[in-house]
Structure prediction request, 566 residues.
Amino acid sequence: MLLSRLLLKQFRNYTELDIELHPHLNILTGENGQGKTNILESIYCLSLVKSFRTSKDTEMVQFGRDTSTIAGDYQSDHGVTHKIVMIQNGRRKSISLDGKRVIRHSDLIGQFPLVLFSPEDHRITSGTPAERRKFLDILLSQANRSYLKTLQEYQRILRQRNQLLALLAEKKISIQELEIWNETLAEAGCSLIDSRRKFLHNIAEPLKEYYSSISENKGVLEIHYAHSSVEEIETKEQYQEALASVFGKEVALSKTIIGPHRDDIVLTIDGRDVRKHASRGEQKSVLLALKLIELNYLKTKIGVTPVLLLDDIYSELDTGRQKHVFETICRFGQTFITSATRINFPSPDNSTFIVTNGNLVRQQSSPK
Amino acid sequence: MDFTSDVVNIAVEELSKLPGIGKKTAQRLVFFLLKQEGESVKSLAAALVALTERVRYCPVCFNITEQTPCAICEHPKRDRHIICVVEEPNDVLAIERTGEYHGLYHVLGGALSPLEGIGPDNLRIRELIKRLQDDVDELILATNASAEGEATALYISKLTRDLGIKTTRIARGVPVGGDLEYTDEVTLARALSNRTEL
Ligand SMILES: Nc1ncnc2c1ncn2[C@@H]1O[C@H](COP(=O)(O)OP(=O)(O)OP(=O)(O)O)[C@@H](O)[C@H]1O
Ligand SMILES: [Mg+2]
Ligand SMILES: [Zn+2]
Prediction:
């Protein structure tokens, strides 16, 4: 899937914009606050019907106006053009696809898949385990509805079980009642752990490869699943045993302390934990490798090549890595890159736009 | 905002106690009723009164009924050796619509849910176990496929395992997390015939 044309009207600092886009690589450069991220935001909206920067759609309407429009022409992998128009009128949003009104906006999600790398994503490598679980859960849920269902069921069982632990602490119920929920928890929990481990197993090699192509073989990136229980859990029996071993502690805390909601995904470079020891530039490279995995995974699951948006990817990367990132992403579909500094790489196959105060000017030919 | 008529205020307050009805909707309903012919409102009122006076729970299966025992429990052609356990009376209706099931029912009145304070003693599980003493060969657990429905089915199956009664769970043709009530008949019929032993 690629975006061949983008039209904006009264969107953020763009009063009127109509541009043709490059099928492979689009580079947006310009000073801070000129509107580079705004362009990515508009493309993100076309694809996911919401922003990644705000939950209030009205914030994207240009100051002092009531309506704004985002429109795009997409070209499918088979070369068919689809026209999508999104009009924000006050709090109301209306969408049309190929001239037909889209009644349920959620129907659109997944049709024009997209992968975004934004500066906030650094949390995935540097933040708490919850950030990494979220990354994994969203990715698996997007491609697999039954994973999402199991996840929701697991969370429901967890809440019920925590309540029972509290009742048990107050000696209001018998232990038999808890056993029922241990069993259902183990069933759902095992299924989640299994899906996650299989996924990590499948991406281990390509992840390592992407990382070494970005870092030019400086360091080996590995990923593995870290159980919150002392022993690894594979079967329901092991799950129950693990629960039994922390029973006293769980009752005392009225909380379930082991299971997929406490597990982590550990990334290491040459055996050292990325979260604790990797530099900012190394973390950024790891993140990019993860995003490329995400892109490839969605591509195989949905059967459509997602558009890749890279916001401010080059800050903190040395010129060597910048060049390798550049070469690596050229192997994927259509990409949009923003950068506050000029990017000078020998690649004739791209369009570079200079962004100034809500205007895009295409640079004639990339300077050698 | 209150109305100058107390009668109106009381009606609004009573209606807003119903599930899914907030104060705004209750007000709209009251205004609607006020505009209606007196007769149609009276027959609505009569229907509501009849509900509380004539409808009760069947003392055997706990389905809602006007006669005791209920028409299903009393029906001479129903297979008395098999009992289908459901959460609510709605679920009986859903299964009856499939036309595939000819045994008896047992309505639990909900599912285990510690968060809502519902434990085994709050459901009609003891009554079910008592019924099993009368020559019952098979128990079908048709609680919802939600976390709570699964836990309830598991709880009952543990009790019946000790009694040596064949216990089956309707297959997961029912969408996960879904209510039986909203499952279409074909899916439900298939789930009934593909039930698995616990
Ligand atoms: N609703 C709006 N109407 C008009 N202008 C807006 C609106 N919302 C934001 N802006 C303007 O858009 C600009 C920010 O644009 P954007 O975030 O795209 O900058 P950027 O080019 O990505 O900068 P940086 O390099 O700092 O990331 C700000 O100057 C802001 O005032
Ligand atoms: Mg920006
Ligand atoms: Zn009955």
Observations:
- Chain B touches chain A through 16 residues (CB under 8 Å).
- The mean pLDDT of chain B is 88.
- The first strand of chain B starts at residue 56 and ends at 57.
- The pocket of adenosine-5'-triphosphate (ligand 1) is lined by residues A 12-13, 30, 32-38, 60-63, 312, 338, 340, 355 (CB under 6 Å).
